[in-house]
Amino acid sequence: MFDALSNAIARHSLPPGTRLVEAQIVEALSANRNHVQSAIQRLVLQNIVTIEPNCGAHVSEPSAQEARDVFAARRAVEQGVVENISQDKMKRHIKALEAHMQAEFGATAGDDRRAIIRELCNFHRLLGNVSENKVLSTILDNLMLRSSLIVALYQRNDIPNCQHSEHKAILSALELGDREGAAALMLDHLNHLESELQFNDESKPAVDLCKALV
Ligand SMILES: [Zn+2]
Question: Which domains does the chain have, with CATH numbers?
Answer without folding.
Answer: 2-60 (1.10.10.10), 64-195 (1.20.120.530)
